[in-house]
Amino acid sequence: MVALQIFLAFIGIYQFVLALFGIYRKKKIIQHQPQKSFAILVAAHNEEKVVGALIENLKNLDYPKELYDVFVICDNCTDNTADIARSMGVHACERFNNQLKGKGFAIEWMLKELWAMPKQYDAIVMFDADNLVNTDFLIHMNNDLCNGHQVIQGYLDTKNPDDSWVTASYGITYWYCNRLWQLSRRNLGMANFLGGTGMCFESKLMKEMGWGATSLVEDLEFSMRCVQRGIHPVLNFEAKVYDEKPVTFKASARQRLRWMQGHFTVARHYFLPLLWASIKERNFVKFDAALYSFSVYTTFLGFVGTVIIWADSILPADNLFKSIYTYLPIWLPAVALAAAAIMFPIVMVLEGVKSRKMYTHLLSMIVFQLSWLPITFYAFFTQNNKQWSHTQHTRVIRLEEVQGKQAS
Fold first, then answer.
1. Engineering a disulfide at 105: which of 100, 167, 250, 383 sits with its beta carbon 3.0 to 4.6 angstroms away?
2. Which of 171, 155, 177, 127 has its CA nearest to residue 237?
3. Could you report the per-residue pLDDT of 353-387, keeping only the tens digit for each?
4. Whole domain around residue 327: which residue ranges?
């Protein structure tokens, strides 16, 4: 038990030190004239309520219209998603397959369709139907592609953080991850991790690798495949994408359960190969990716270990298991907790969050963060579930509304 706690403490210290490198933000951008062509893929399953707002958004990007086309993947849709896409002048690609369900399979199918088309593109960009995107998104993708990057992840933000305490918690978590998980790795020249939307891929690489990511977390799976091949996905901090988050705790728990189930699958397949490769090649980037893939197990083990120690201390018998804090000065755990907690408000200040109400949600976010523990515990015992659970989206929000709220 002590060995487990030391291991978990190492992971915590490692991530904290890494996070410090995200406080500084380099703002120098190498600009290039628009030259890359893009196929924008929009993954949609029964998204008639929100897909129109995204299509309208994408048709008004600040990028030459002849250099990009929009393809809506209407995956097993039983509503008017395809009709809306066609009526707005973009490509509606309908797929019906009751056996191979989920976003990963839909993307794999769409790429095969795309490669067979007469017109070819320099790069592929992927969004979800509930997204909104800043109009300069393709300009930033063009810059990174011209600078030699092959896999790029945009800045993932939340378009409805003020809907409830749950969406506020998502928003704060995303600001934290963008700055202290993703930007820190970009600053250190390490691999970033894909976030499921706002992603850009060089077509040549995609044709060579194939998609091959059909788990419940296809983004993480493809990230690991890239790192295995020595390709480092990079974050573009300026290219912002806004994702709609579940308003209720129940819907949030269902979504996060799917993420954790998929994360366990990815960890089983990639942790040991990446760890062995990192040792064999003395490759720190692969070591970091291995730890990231294993993080779902550290959460699970941390939860189990905490329950065991607390149960042991409550039972009327001699304690078999002790917390490592009993061997340390009493001030040390207090300092560790304070250091971890202070990072969240610091990130909000760094990201320019002005809403006082959002800062009050730092308290309710504690409940949100703690809820990951039982969710991950349950996911461990249901990780063989491959059923894709679709998150319903009904809010029609436009880019002007999101940007207006941020400015205020």
1. 100
2. 155
3. 988 899 999 999 999 999 999 999 999 999 887 66
4. 2-19+266-381
